[in-house]
Amino acid sequence: MLKNHLLDYSHRYASKWLVLAIDLSIVFVSFILSYFIRFNLTMNFDTERLILQLPVVCGVTLIAFLFTGSYKGVVRHTGVRDVYNIFNSICLSSILIILLVILNKQLDLIDEFTIPLSIIIIYSLISFIVLSASRYIFKSLFYSLVKQYKVSKNVIIYGAGEAGIVTFNALTDNPGRNSKVVGYIDDDLKKVGKNLNGVRIYSRDQLSHYFIDKKNVAEIIVSVQERDNKLLKNLVESLVEFPVKVKIVPPMEDWINGEFKVSQIKPVQIEDLLNRVPINIKNSKISNELKGKTIVVTGGAGSIGSELVRQIVKYDYKSLVILDMAESALYDLQQELKQKGVHNFIAIVADIRDKNRMNTYFQEHKPQLVFHTAAYKHVPLMEYNAYEAIKINVAGTKMIADLSLAHNVEKFVFVSTDKAVNPTNVMGATKRIAEMYISCMDQKQKTKFITTRFGNVLGSNGSVIPLFRKQIEKGGPLTVTHKEITRYFMTIPEASQLVLEAGAMGQGGEIFIFDMGESVKIFDLAKNMIRLSGLRYPEDIDIKITGLRPGEKLYEELLANGENTLPTYHKKIMISKVRDLDYPDTRAKIDELCVSNMFFGENAVKLMKEIVPEYVSRNSKFCELDGPSSTAYVKTASNPDLKREKSTIF
């Protein structure tokens, strides 16, 4: 019963009138004490005079309290600002008392009211000290009572700088968390061994499993504001080795209204452990490019398409048409936009392969910008469904590109993938063929056709991270196809910003690629996700190697053999300098591919290999089309000496 009463009380505030009454009581006692101190703790003073002065002093101080509002502060959250208000109220009351004494003396009203200046000074000092101390005493008592009935959690703060102090204050001032800071960790050896807020500072070398067990540490909170992404990544990666939860304090610029709240302390995300610096593109060109335009986004309910829509609606466009054949996902996006107050858009359930319907929409809305993200993207599925991959990724792209040219669209931005580079699977080959068709269309010099090419997107539908999260929830094991497999990663917002930036800077014919940093080993990614979940590998959750899937590469690339890059005004965005194509021949073969595929022609994949000579299948039934002596080897820039591996059919 007492526990429930205290916890319920912790969610209420003491009445401000009760605080005011306590403050006046303190003032009453302080004024009496000032007389005792002034007369050397004796009663050699006129008590009648004191009794006459007490109500006047209390009344004047009450006016000062009401004017400054010092009694309105929440006692359990007393801070410097509250002490400052008390100081102002005592100063104001002292000035008013002195003015009354002077006025009384000048008018010669009441002789007994004269208060010596020394009494006023002593009274002011005692009142200020006791009022301030009382608040901190009440605050400490409140936390002590509440914490007796809550389970305490020991926390270590990594960083004994200003950010670490702010984090400490936020934790100790929040009874809801009931966290106890048992130590600081800092790399500055000059701080090691000293105390900060009564808590000892330790060095990084002292942090060990024994130390964690001895202190019974449940969380390590990284509170470092001077951030070097690589150093921060290495730090966090080393901390997740310990059997504790690792959390991180956001940069100061992300604090709410410049103030730090405990709720802003977040668990470390897998994005924090990537070998790359997140990039925010801030360019007025995007705003100018979209202003007053009618925009079409195909595949608008997908991972990239939906985020692209979220970014576009922030700008001053004319109208936005969102096309997708996934009814449920499109409905969810529609409701999300409406809840945000966005109404200048139309969501259309449609198949980009339906030429008549697409032509109707182009005629009706007359788009000036088209962002084409609709595609099939899952490598193993498309290896067994080559017909659908060609129909959507090649024929669908071809149809939207043709309509864009026919309806005088200003710019057509195509979203491609790093799997189009030296493809080893049907999906990658179809995306490369789509890139080639886009290049052919740009030769018309009418619509500006632009391509963006980037790697895997964190958190997208069907990507590895959501898969790992589901597997962790089920208790594992996590499945990795190969212990050495690596991938490039970027976040969905970054990918969408790149597409918009490409649309703004592109003049037609470019393939924009992104500096995605270092590739990430998927096996290490899986281990880090297990640790970030507060579990241990392999004791709690194991990792199972399943073998490479059909068409899957060990290493992805952003540039094909024979390609180089040219710089742009953004140091992280480059233009791929592709080898020249025989445009008439390429376009003719792509037309032939689409027709052959319509009749379920068995030679469709073989024709794809003619169009894309570097397309060499791997772990697929299509390996036989590469000849009896073929291998599934693709030379990569990061692994030029990789040995050739014999193709196998799963």
Summarize the SSE layout with pairings.
Blueprint lengths: L1 H8 L6 H23 L8 H22 L11 H28 L9 H32 L4 E6 L3 H11 L6 E7 L9 E2 L2 E4 L6 H7 L1 E6 L6 H11 L5 E4 L17 E2 L16 H7 L3 E5 L4 H10 L6 E6 L2 H13 L5 E5 L5 H11 L3 E4 L6 H6 L1 H21 L4 E7 L8 H17 L5 E7 L1 E3 L5 H10 L4 E3 L5 E2 L1 E3 H14 L5 E4 L5 E2 H11 L10 E3 L18 E4 L5 E5 L5 H16 L5 H8 L39
Parallel strand pairs: 1-2, 1-5, 2-4, 5-6, 8-9, 8-11, 9-10, 11-12, 12-13, 13-18, 14-17, 15-20
Antiparallel strand pairs: 3-4, 6-7, 16-19, 18-22, 21-22
Structural features, described:
The protein has 650 residues and is α/β, with parallel strands linked by helices. The protein folds into three domains: 2-147, no CATH class; 153-268, Rossmann fold (3-Layer(aba) Sandwich); 291-457 and 491-519 and 557-611, Rossmann fold (3-Layer(aba) Sandwich). It has 20 helices and 22 strands. It has a nine-stranded mixed sheet with strand order 10-9-8-11-12-13-18-22-21, with helices on both faces. Strand 9, helix 11 (327-339) and strand 10 (345-349) form a beta-alpha-beta unit. The protein starts with a helix and ends in a 39-residue tail after the last helix. The model is unreliable at 1-13 and 631-650 (pLDDT under 50).
Biggest β-sheet description: 9 strands, mixed
Tell me the fraction of residues in β-strands, as a range.
5-15%
CATH C-level of the largest domain: Alpha Beta
Our count of domains comes out at: 3
Instruction: Name the CATH architecture of the largest domain.
Output: 3-Layer(aba) Sandwich
